[in-house]
From TrEMBL:
Gene3D superfamilies for this protein: Crotonobetainyl-coa:carnitine coa-transferase, domain 1, formyl-coa transferase, domain 3
Superkingdom classification of source: Bacteria
PANTHER family associated with the record: SUCCINATE--HYDROXYMETHYLGLUTARATE COA-TRANSFERASE (PTHR48207:SF3)
Protein name: Carnitine dehydratase
Signal peptide: none
GO molecular function: CoA-transferase activity
Keywords assigned by UniProt, alphabetized: Transferase
Lineage: Bacteria, Pseudomonadati, Pseudomonadota, Betaproteobacteria, Burkholderiales
InterPro entries from the UniProt entry: CoA-transferase_III_domain, CoA-Trfase_fam_III, CoA-Trfase_III_dom3_sf, CoA-Trfase_III_dom_1_sf
Taxonomic source organism: Bordetella genomosp. 12
Segments of this protein annotated with the region Disordered: 360-386
Length: 386
């Protein structure tokens, strides 16, 4: 890939020092890098541990970099620094002198132990934006404790509302807390960069998995605040809307997400049963919720005569939200996925593209994920610092 031939992104000229590892921080900094920021990923001598989270390995070689690492570290330059040594910390301070943002997800207190805490950095670099991603923050009853995605899902109520009604609490099948924490960290950085245009000053951004997990509890928290009942698991069914769940068809499963009476009437018409829309039991959403078992039985009988993919397309064209349930391979191969440019491919690199589409300054693929320490020589990292 020829980075010099690509259009500059919206964050061109912004320099980010990425001290983070695993997922939340790297997901944040990849988003910034996709949009033109110069992100320098700094790893410990042994590398980001996700390099070993395989198979599969991105280069097909056991002991190389795992696909997990490749998925969240493109468009970055990479060096290794041993921050436990004074030489490594001194080199980092030199990098921070020209940086706009530093992102780290060390256990709170680690940067302070190294003499690199926010108060020190603020004094030396008043324009620097310091973003810390942590499990619980640095203070409070859980302050300073390590945080992990699955533990946050368990602790913060996400597992309690995920799973079948009569089944056990279930982890969401992707690291949703880590990823939304990365998204919130990126949003916070952009807010701080915008504010710095007025004040000329950086600030400290305190982003935690705990807070971000709790922020995902809609509509369950709102239902609890105003209804007083502790939310329970409901499988694929929505607690507030019906029909809003999966149904079996003659070929595959379909998800119906019918949010109003007009959509419900369109569903019934498409299924050849317009009389359902005028049935008093299903007259409005409240009635449909009350009579959900009867509604499900009626719809299930009608849907067994259809194929999920074909019916979903017809329903969408009729203004009724519906989707066939697809696996990962199917969605990555879908024509609309390719039309939207959501799969990046260059030489041996394949990845999910940025979903943020800007008309003049689009995201682009500039660099494949870096090999460990590949820019050490380019940036002049002395052996004693690496």
């Amino acid at each position: 890939m020829n980075a010099s031939a690509l259009p500059q992104g919206a964050l061109a000229g912004c320099r980010v020092i990425d001290l983070s590892r695993v997922l939340g921080g790297p997901y944040c900094t990849q988003m910034l890098a996709d949009h033109g920021a110069d992100v320098l990923k700094i790893e410990p001598p042994d590398g980001d541990e996700t390099r070993g989270w395989g198979p599969p390995f991105a280069d097909g070689v056991a002991g190389g970099s795992a696909s997990y690492f490749a998925g969240v570290n493109r468009n970055k330059r990479g060096i290794t620094l041993n921050l436990a040594r004074p030489e490594g910390r001194a080199f980092l301070l030199g990098l921070l002198a020209d940086a706009d943002v530093v992102v780290e997800n060390f256990k709170p207190g680690t940067m302070e132990k190294w003499g690199l805490g926010y108060e020190r950095l603020k004094a030396d670099f008043p324009r620097l934006i310091h973003c810390r991603v942590s499990g619980f923050g640095g203070d409070g009853p859980l302050g300073g404790l390590p945080g992990y995605d699955a533990c946050a899902q368990a602790m913060c109520g996400l597992m309690s509302v995920n799973g079948e009604r009569d089944g056990p609490p279930t982890r969401v099948g992707l690291p949703v807390v880590d990823m939304v924490t990365g998204l919130n960290a990126a949003s916070a950085i952009l807010l701080a960069l915008y504010e710095r245009e007025r004040s000329g000053l950086g600030q400290f951004l305190d982003i935690t998995l705990y807070d971000c997990a709790i922020s995902l509890l809609h509509p369950h928290a709102a239902n609890y605040f105003y209804g007083g009942q502790v939310p329970q698991r409901s499988g694929n069914a929505h607690p507030n809307i019906a029909p809003y769940e999966t149904f079996a068809t003659a070929a595959g499963e379909i998800f119906l997400a019918v949010g109003n009476n007009r959509q419900f009437a369109g569903l019934c018409e498409t299924l050849g049963a317009p009389e359902l829309a005028s049935d008093p039991r299903f007259a409005d959403n409240a009635a449909r919720l009350t009579h959900r078992p009867a509604l499900r039985e009626a719809l299930s009988g009608l849907l067994r005569a259809h194929q999920a993919a074909e019916l979903a397309e017809r329903l969408l064209k009729h203004g009724v939200p519906a989707a066939a349930v697809q696996d990962v391979a199917e969605v990555l191969d879908h024509p609309h996925t390719h039309h939207r440019g959501m799969v990046l491919e260059d030489a041996s690199y394949r990845g999910i593209a940025s979903p943020i589409k800007l008309s003049r300054t689009p995201a682009s693929l500039r660099r494949a994920p870096p090999a460990k320490g590949e820019a050490n020589a380019e940036l002049g990292v002395p052996p004693e610092a690496a």
